[in-house]
Every structure is written in structure tokens, then in C-alpha cells.
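Fold this sequence, please.
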Amino acid sequence: MRRLFISDLHLQPERPDISRAFHYFLSHIAPPCDELYLLGDIFEYWIGDDAPLPGLEPLLRQLRDLVDQGTRLYFMHGNRDFLVGHDLMAQLGATLLPEQHRLIIDGEAALLLHGDELCTDDVDYQAFRAQVRDSQWQQAFLSKSVAERIAVARQLREASQQQGAMKQEAIMDVNPQAVADIMDRHDVELLIHGHTHRPARHAQPRQDARGERIVLGDWSESGWYLEIRDGKRELIRFTPPPECTTQ
């Protein structure tokens, strides 16, 4: 069983380098794999399935081709693409996961998250997260015209960037107690998440066992993925060769 996990690509028309890295990943690294998990912020923003980001159609077709070749594809919302819906999932042949997804990997219990709910020291962000994840807020937003949604999305992105620039780095990282609590609550030995853009593997002591927390990396001209196969875990960074294009 070969499982791959990625997050925080932040695909957007203004960043062809990220699209190039993802194209290479889907062409040369992902196949063949049994399961591919997209753990949030795959897109820089998403204002509804009726208004997909322009220019990403080839990458969406590649994802569908991977599914048609036998890969099971899973998607989890991030803090940028929490409005991805069932129409896109049907287009890709993917399964939409809940915010916290527990599964068994090579005989061990694991928990998948995007990771933003672990940043509990950032009180302002947690309040914003609760607001935009509310179903009534989402329905009201999706009822607006595409132009209105684009304007709101731009405002939210600008506000997020300004606030992030003023916050201490530690506030935007995970809270250690929140990590311990969620692993205990779900009774897991392994936690996999993204969001913080701090790729690493951390030992996570537990009361009766040794655990591990694996943080996925964010993408630019290079990409990151976690591969788990036959009990072996590898967090890998790659850079496409210069001759690779998205065509």
C-alpha cells in the first residue's frame, strides 16, 4: 500500500511555478499510488465550485486521470479552500473528508488534519475560522454574485496577510497542548497536518506509547510530500528538472 499526503500548494494563476511543480508531481511521482490525500489549501482561494480558479483545468484533469488509473483521492478543507464542494469532488472522483479524519495506517491509528485548529494561541484567527466555517455564513457568501465573492475573497486575503505580518511566529504555530489533547482524544499514535508551512517530523510522547507528528510542507518551485509505504515514512522535498513544463 502506497499512500501520499500533500497540502499547502496554494495553487493560483499568478504562481505558474507551483502549477509546474504539481504537474511534475502528478506525472512523475504520484503514479502509481493507492491513495492520495490533499490536506487543505490546495488552492490559494476558492469562492465556490461554480467559479473555479482559471488556468488550473489541466491539473484538475490530471487528478481525474490519476483516479481513473485506480488511485483513491481524498480532499480535506483548508483555511483557504474551505468552500470546495461536492461538485468539484464529483468532477475529480474524490472523497471529501471531515475536518478531523481518523484512519489506520500500517496497523497504527493516525489522525489527518489541515492543522489550523491546532493554532489555538492565535485567538483572532480562531474566531475568524469559526465564522467562515459556519454554514449560514457560507450560504450567504455563496449567494452573492461571482464578482462580489471575488471582492470579498481579496479583502480577506489582504487582511490575513497584514495581520500575519504583525503576529509573532510562535502565535501562528501549533500549541503543544492542543496537539497532545487531540491525539489523546482520538487515541492515535500518528498525527499528519499542514498549515504552518514548517515541514518536519516531531516525536510526540504519549502516556502509554511513543507518537509522531508529521508536518507537511508548502509549495513553490519545489514541492513536498509524505510517502508512507510498508511501514516506512518519508517526508520528501523535490524540485522538477528545468525541462519540465505544464504542457
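The chain has one domain: 2-238. DSSP finds seven helices and eleven strands in the chain.
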